[in-house]
Write a structure and sequence with these properties.
single chain; 320 residues; mainly alpha
């Protein structure tokens, strides 16, 4: 038994107020589970998160434990019961460390999937602007695809309309003088659909935002530029159109263009932003700290047990 001398005995102190009768009563008055079902539930309390469970959570852990014991036996060739116990403790620490790593990985994966949701990504790119968030959602769910050519046409139309003081629009002549590209596109559209200007403006003003901008999305068509100018219905109606109708139409058009182009820029960078958010996601600090404490405890236990095993074998070999 001399080989166990390095293990220092622990002195157990008995409390001065220990009374067997009181301790017996405390046990009787315990609020612990009384029924078999309650006791069974209580026995599983430590497996809530699994990190401190005294039994293996599944067959994979049992297999890992068995395999680790076999490998450690090959490495250290234990000869006594105490050495085999230390081998078992090291294997237990190994399995718990693997379990802790698995839990930590799952925490990061879960946090990443939640953080990289469509809603959160759009919100971050929209700077919390509720209108833009809604516009971007609408564009996303109708299957919008970014088209540089269409985007350029919309931006070009916007650059022609945006500088204008729309309240100054007094008639169609103002549009032709100050927004010639837009005027040409509208005239071409009226000619193609055989509509007079009044009917066209009235129809477009009542369109949804994604429909009203379609007229400028295709850009200017120079293939038949003079056709629109010869349309009699258009020429007759452009003198009848009211300034208020034109102001209302162009106000809605420019507002729709602004929101659409902003939504397109958001969606253009959406995939990249989602990945950024996922990469930067961190689990709850308290839970992560708890994981680190369990890992540290098991690492220290493994190191301590390994030291005891090596010292024990050193003493055994020295005594032979």
């Amino acid at each position: 038994m001399q080989i166990y001398n390095f293990i220092k005995p622990v002195k157990i102190r008995q409390s001065f107020n220990y009374n067997p009768y009181i301790m017996s009563n405390k046990k009787k008055n315990s609020n612990g589970p009384k029924t078999d079902e309650g006791k069974a539930i209580s026995s599983r309390n430590s497996t809530t998160h699994g990190l401190t469970a005294r039994r293996w959570l599944n067959v994979n852990e049992q297999s890992l434990y068995d395999e680790t014991v076999k490998n450690l036996i090959v490495d250290f060739d234990p000869q006594s019961s105490i050495e085999k116990i230390l081998i078992s403790k090291m294997a237990e620490c190994t399995v718990r460390l693997m379990r802790t790593q698995k839990v930590e990985n799952a925490m990061f994966d879960l946090t990443s999937s939640v953080a990289g949701s469509l809603d959160e990504s759009i919100k971050s790119l929209s700077d919390g602007n509720e209108i833009m968030i809604q516009e971007t959602h609408n564009a996303f769910f109708i299957g919008w695809q970014f088209d540089p050519h269409t985007f350029t046409n919309k931006m070009f139309a916007l650059s022609e309309i945006a500088p204008q003081h729309l309240a100054n629009i007094t008639g169609w002549a103002y549009v032709e003088d100050n927004m010639p590209i837009i005027a040409s596109v509208i005239m071409k559209k009226c000619t193609d659909e055989k509509l007079n200007l009044c009917d066209f403006i009235s129809r477009e003003t009542n369109q949804s935002a994604d429909q009203i901008i379609k007229i400028v999305a295709a850009g200017k068509d120079n293939s038949d530029e003079n056709t629109s100018l010869s349309n009699e219905k258009f020429i007759e109606s452009n003198h009848k159109i009211s300034s208020s109708s034109l102001q209302e139409y162009f106000t809605k058009l420019v507002r729709s263009l602004v929101r659409d182009t902003q939504a397109q820029l958001i969606l253009k960078d959406l995939d990249h932003r989602i990945q950024q958010i996922k990469d930067a996601a961190m689990p709850d600090t308290k839970k992560l700290s708890l994981i680190q404490r369990y890992r540290t405890a098991d690492e220290r236990q493994f190191s301590k047990t390994l030291g005891e095993l090596l010292e024990l074998q050193k003493r055994r070999k020295a005594s032979n």
